[in-house]
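Hi D.,

Good news: the full-assembly prediction came through. Inputs first.
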Amino acid sequence: MTLAAESSPATAQPAALAVETPLRRFLSDYFESWVATAALALLAIIVLLAIVAPWIVPQNPYDLAQVDVMESRLPPGEKHSVSGYTYWLGTDGAGRDLLSAMLYGVRISLTVGVLSGLIAMAIGATVGLIAAYAGGRVESLIMRVVDLQLSFPAILLALMLIAILGKGVDKIIIALVTVQWAYYARTVRGTALVESRKEYVEAARCLGLSHNRILMRHILPNCLPPLIVVATVQTAHAIALEATLSFLGVGLPQTEPSLGLLISNGFEYMLSGKYWISFFPGILLLLTIMVINLVGDQLRDVLNPRLRR
Amino acid sequence: MAAFVLRRLMQSVVVVFVMSLIVFCGVHLIGDPVHLLINPQADQKDIEAAIRSLGLDKPIWQQYLHFIGGALSGDLGKSFIFGESALKVIVQRMPATLELALAATAMSVTLGIPLGLYAGLYPKSLASRTIMASSILGFSLPTFWVGLMLIMVFAVMLGWLPSTGRGETATWLGITSSLFTVNGWKHILLPALNLALLKISLVIRLTRAGAREAIHQDYIKFARAKGLSNRRIIGVHLLKNILIPVVTVLGLEFGNLVAFSVVTETIFAWPGMGKLLIGSIQSLDRPVIVAYLIIIVLMFVVINLVVDILYSVLDPRVRLGEKSA
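Then the structure:
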């Protein structure tokens, strides 16, 4: 924050010379902080690597023809005995190239995190909008459920659902969505309450627009800024929660090895000093969560009208 | 006041009942425990006898009635794996978990308050910025990953502390705990630190915010004008006022701590309730899962109830707000 405030006069001037559109102002506000800029760049790199992972990894870690069990648990920098290929980050317990396994892992972690975040956002935003617009009994019932759910720790709720639903990718996503929707609902309801009392909504009502249209085309777009902030932070939470569940052995199945599962698989070798199998996937997980949080922090500062300079 | 407490109590009872219903019905949808618990080599007669003895042949609502009846008399069913009362299995492991949570709370207070106080009193110094940066790290690091790193550094590389299990226990004043032996302290240090990390960050932030706010208040200025020593102003006048929110939050977070011990206990092989829960989920030991969840729900409901009531005693606005809503 202080960094951003100090550098604002320097960067604000060129932006002011150009035609000031909301998007341009948003961008110039965002890139004021070099930490946030670096975080966004790093996030872009991680996402890109995750997307193109199948085409760039040196070894398909799940093709048994390419994996040699005899090469298991090699420390970083060892070479493949036949092809001479260097395992830059070593190999894991099954002889897979750790770098390749990690890129596949971050792909799965991000997919699960983002997918569950999007579904939770859709459900939560809808419920929150309904609560704010309907008011009365409906609102107090919905908000009671939200309050009740938010008073229990996310991990416990997720564990409870996993215990009920069993393992599997779809089950994990259901659990993550159930844990998260309440945050979105609370945020949207709060913002929508404020928005629905504003004059433009009154004007829209006077024009005789349908409830649907007012909700979706007028109120919802104005709820987007806080929603985006919550979405980034919640995605980071979802990724961390999925990793935790997978680490505990109640998350994703072994056929979908996310970063959490890789860390879990390496845990048994850690006590014998073979640290890298858990260490490197952990660093990647950490980096992913941190950059998403940093981007979210900056978005909150930029999108908050009260902090606008 | 009495009406408020009564209404709040009724709400809690409803919550517990609904949760027990959800949990029980949900858990019955998990796979078929018959296949998991009974030797597939056994003949049909033995399998049927086993189903009958576990009560799995009755309709689900009867099983629930049986369960609720048992729960009210303190019997939450028999563990499939241990062959003992599920409640007993959990209660046996409860002291280990509470001990861990208590140690973590103590750690977050002894580390968090001084660090937060420093950061609040000297916000511009390099040390304060480092403290605040690390507290952000404490929030975003996944607990299990920190636990692994603690094991790697302190147990594997340096070999200072043991990485798994609970140490020797000793009994003092009728309480059996590993906190009374040196060996026990060695064992609890790493898991407690792991569990406390998030709370340390939280306490640092609360204390810092409190200190920064309080330092400009009139009573501090007055104390300075009276010529009190800096140590007395900070140690007595400032700290007392900061402690109120810190204590409240720590009280509320105690349930959270117990819930999060699921992760820490699994990593450090700490023989508590959390590790039992993970094991039970993996082996589909339904009575233990149900009993654990009921106990945790009860704990949360009680903590929330107590805090709510305390607040309504301290702050009448809470009661009035409840009425108008």
